[in-house]
Amino acid sequence: MKIVINNTCGFQISQEALDRYNELRRERGYGGGKLTYKISREQDRQDDLRCDPIFVRVVEELGERAHRRSGRFTIYKLNDEYYNERLWEFREFDGATWVELNDRAIELWRELQQLRPQSDRLNSNNTM
User: What's the pTM value of the predicted model, to 2 decimals?
Assistant: First the structure.
């Protein structure tokens, strides 16, 4: 799973990126209102956007133009199992974000995987 983090200057989406994001949402038939700069500044919305495949695509397409001012977004690839089990979280300091894995939760999750019956593990591996 790909997610977006911002390295500097906070989560500031350019107007070009907002326009492209809204365009792709319309093309895919998503309802709801347009994403605006003001809405994109809300913390809950930022976390949703960081994991949104459409927003990831916009950042991949636009590169440096996706971020306002001198900041930049970075695409971070996270192991699908860790993503799905939510064994990670966003951390933020002084406008920069990063992904932090929860090592203890990962260790416990691996132990639980070993306790599952062999047939369950085979079935879950075939569906990934």
Answer: 0.72
